[in-house]
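tool_call predict_complex ligand=flavin mononucleotide
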Amino acid sequence: MTATLQELFGIDAPIVLGPFGGLSSVELTATVSEAGGLGSYGLYGYSADRISDTVAALRSATSRPFAVNVWLRTGDEVTPGDVDLAPAIDAVAPLFDELGLQRPAPPTEFMPDTDAQLTAVLDAEPAVLSVVFGVPSERLIAAAHSRGIRVIGTATSVAEAVALDAAGVDAVVATGSEAGGHRVSFLRPAEESLVGTFALVPQVVDAVGVPVIAAGGIADRRGVAAAFALGASGVQVGSAFLRTRQSAATDVHRNAIAGASDTSTVLTRAMSGRLARGIPNRAMRTIETAGVIAPFPAQNWLTGQFRAEAGRRGDGDLVSLWAGQAAGLATREDATDVFAELAAGVPA
Ligand SMILES: Cc1cc2nc3c(=O)[nH]c(=O)nc-3n(C[C@H](O)[C@H](O)[C@H](O)COP(=O)(O)O)c2cc1C
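tool_result ok
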């Protein structure tokens, strides 16, 4: 008999707040954990020190279990020495000019060292570590378990879920192509791993022994009930929570989600060099039209140079507006209300 997520994580309801790399907030994570779910916090781009501080802040905000999320390395990440950034910089030069920004000089690194991030997570001992873009090593899983940390892996295909199960993770998120944000595929190109949640979840449930958490396109009680009907043991929800006042999304991002319909989102590599789902805006179109996109994480770093300033100015044209296909169902402004709506769909 598969363990319930409640037993596995020490939570009251099998509802996971999805992590948001760059847009997680302590307030939202703690709100979901306090409500009885598993709040998650995305650590993309965080240094080891910032990870320690963030886990400490989460611990002050809630005594309930929470998860932190790390992007593993797939091996195709470029370093500053690997790429000539000039063509990609030229492609976005008008956007820098528009904001009155200098064209950026290449940094010493595009993202912090992943092993240092993982060591900081282990030292901080959150209840749960969730990972994307790969299979955690046996050593990492053993180190986590020896500290009482549960490990969640994330799959976009049955093969990825089987690899995660074989490695010994405690649960698998099966994330369908409806989901907002990055496609976290690691065995095959993301474009060839676009299985929808309805097809993915039951096939993953049939293939693995650990509990499956359904993600992608779930935003209300109907989606939760459907996920359980497909054999899931829980759900992970992103867009519906991102729209709430407790998230770290900018107002323009929140408003874009609030105004979204079923056809409002597209998949693009333009903003980060990796495929991700969001609402198109001028930045995305400018880069797509120029047709020059640096590989990940170079492109993510590059667009990050103008996204940060645009975000400060509340300019929705020059930020990333990540959202999923169910953004049109994200009508609630308070995370506690979103949680109550989702919880109403969990079978008794
Ligand atoms: C802005 C944004 C950032 C995200 N960042 C991450 C991340 O860093 N790590 C991760 O595992 N999932 C990330 N996701 C995926 C969510 O955690 C969640 O699985 C997904 O949003 C579920 O699909 P939904 O948007 O249809 O609810 C992100 C999603 C969004 C919208």
